[in-house]
Each structure stands twice: as structure tokens, then as C-alpha cells.
Amino acid sequence: MEADPSLLIKTKQAHWLTRGVLGIGIASLCSDWGHEIATALLPALLAGMGAPAYALGVIEGVADGASTFAKLAGGWIASRPAWRKPVAVTGYLLTGLTTFALGFVGTWPHVLAARAIGWVGRGARGPARDVLLTGAVAPGQVGRAIGFERTMDTAGAILGPLCATALVASTSIRVAMRWTILPGVVAAIAFVTLVPARTRDGEHPPLPFLTSIANLPREFRKFLRAVALFGMGDFAHSLLILRAVQLLLPNYGSMRAAAMAVGLYTFHNVIYASASYPAGALGDRIGRRGLLGAGYFLAALTSLGFIFARPELPMLAVLFGLAGLYVAIHDTLEKSVATELLPRELRATGFGVLASVNGIGDFVSSVAVGFLWSAVSPSAGFAYACALTALGGVLLFMLVSKARPVQHI
Fold first, then answer.
1. Residues with Cβ < 8 Å from 217, sequence gap 6 or more?
2. pLDDT tens-digit profile of 389-408?
3. DSSP letters of 158-187?
4. What is the pTM of this model?
5. 393 vs 27, 32, 96, 279, 319, CA distance in Å?
């Protein structure tokens, strides 16, 4: 007697946590764990070198810019199936090794060079990783896979600062930086040993760079407009820490206010990590685009809340929690929606373009909000963010609510 085909399909659909998804999740956890240790200790390292006040801003700005352009190039490189796994593994190794090197450098320009090289590796590996991740599961399970990867990545972002605190308490900043080699190498090993080089996508001949950009589907281009508009209002959440300190300072003093603000940001990351997989799974079940649009509007609501925030810890905890929730939704579902709109042969290029648009948006939003914050008031910065993220949500619903997903055959 032959098995019922529908039962076989259901059985296969149940196993979304494939070997490839697990390997990518572990690699994301360990890589973020390592470089977040370094990120937490970087200001103190620069201070110990006698670096000028502007050094940290220059370092992070150059590194983020290098990463943005590397994502675009990495997407085109990853359009070659045989190159995806080597590029991803090289990117993880490069990030781990340059982070480890921060424990030996002597001047802040050396820190700049190491950080920029590491962030090139981090940016270039992203599209290759994402294509391997989405190709490791059935189309209906993409949200779950991306949500799991985001959860593991954010867990690393939580563990990193905690380990940095513990290491500095027992050793020096430089020695603590050198310990980052362990999670960095484990990330590369996990990718090498667990992630298959071949995915469900099959083989597709690569297109020239400009041709691949020009051939991106019309509906995906519309989607990118909404992403760009939202991104120009989605500022770096380190500014939320600053706002919490400003609000809490009169009642609690500088030390307690700073400690409370860091605690609130840790809560933000816990919510982000906890909500990423449920957001992906829910998107798979009820529709990814509508849920992503709801996430965009939630971002606008969060900024609106900070305009009227009072120096009360419960209220700030709710706002930080909402911020973590909307980041979980948009980080997970933007890639899931992109997977729906991109044909397999252009998926790597599309992921690279999406990541680059996000990177440019992050830069524009942080500069704009920071300028309005300083020149006018914090409320002006949050009002700008509220307007842009809400407009991004409106445009998303207008542009892609009737779009049909690409048929993956």
C-alpha cells in the first residue's frame, strides 16, 4: 500500500529546523557573541590609547559604510552557487580574526583598519548566508528559518556585553578582546560542518552585475521603495539609551540612570530575540507583507511614545519592549517578503540590494534624528522618525498588497 502523498508533504513541512538552518543559527550566535564583546569594550580600548573623541564615530561610520557596499558586492558574488559557502565562511573568519586583532593593535587608525576589514567580511557574507538559509527550507517555512537565525543572532548580542563585563572584571581589556577568537572560530566551523553547499535553489547561470540589478522584478523594486522610506526613519537604537538617561537623570542621578538605561536596552534585546521566530512563523501562517506593514506602523507608534515619554521606568520599559518587537518583525519579515518577490536566480543579488538599502537608510536616519535632536529637541527627532516609518508602512500596503509572489519551481 502506497503512502498518502499529503501525509508525506506534512511530514516534510514539519522539519523546518534542517541541518543548514541549525548551522547558520549557531554561526550567527557565535559570530555576534564575539564581535559584540569587542563592540562593548571598544570605547574603553580607544580611551586607553588616548584616541581623540571623534575616533569612535569615524571608526563606526567607516566600518558601516564599508559593510553596506560589501553587501551589494556580496549579493552579486553569491549569485554563483559554488561561491556561496566559501564566501560565507571567509566572511565569518575575517570578522573573527580582525576582532581578535583588536587585542594587539596600538593606535586608533589600526583599530579603524581592523574594524573596516572585519565589517567588509560581515557585509559580504550576508547575502550568501541568506540565500543558503532560504534555500535550506521549503518556501512556506522561510519565515521560521529567518526568525530562528535572527533569534540566535540577537542571543549573541545579549551574551557579548555580559561576557565583556565578566572578562574585564577578571582580566584586561586587551586580553578580553583576544578571547573573541573562540566564538569567531566556532562560527566558521559550524558553517563549514553543518551548512550544505547546495540548496533547494538548484543551479542558475550568473548574470553580469548591472544586468542582475536591472533584471530585479518590478514588484521587488516597489518593495524597496517602502523599505527605503521606512529605513530613513529607523534610527540606531543606541539613541534610545541616551533618551532614557536624559529622562531618568533628574530623579536617579547619573550612575543609576545609566545603569537603568543599559538594563532597558538589554530588555529590548531580549524581546527582539524572543519575538523573531514567532514573527517569522506567524508571517508564514497569516501572510508576511501585512505583518511587516504592521511592524512598520508599530515603529511609528514607538517613536510617538518617546515624544510623550515621562521619567517613569514602567513606561520606558513598555517603549523599549515595543522597539524590540518591531525590530524583530521587520528584520525577519523583510527578507521573507523579498524571498517571495525574487526569482531564485536573482535572489542573492536581491538580498544584497535589500541589505544595502537598509544600510543607507540606517545612516540617513541616524544622522537626521541626531541632527534634529541636537539642533531642535529630542521630540523633533522622534517626530521625524514617526513620520518616515509610518509613511513606509503606508507605501508598503499601497505597493505590494496586491503583488503576487514569484512562483518557485
1. 341, 342, 343, 346, 406
2. 999 999 998 876 555 555 44
3. HHHHHHHHHHHHHS-HHHHHHTTHHHHHHH
4. 0.79
5. 32, 29, 36, 17, 19
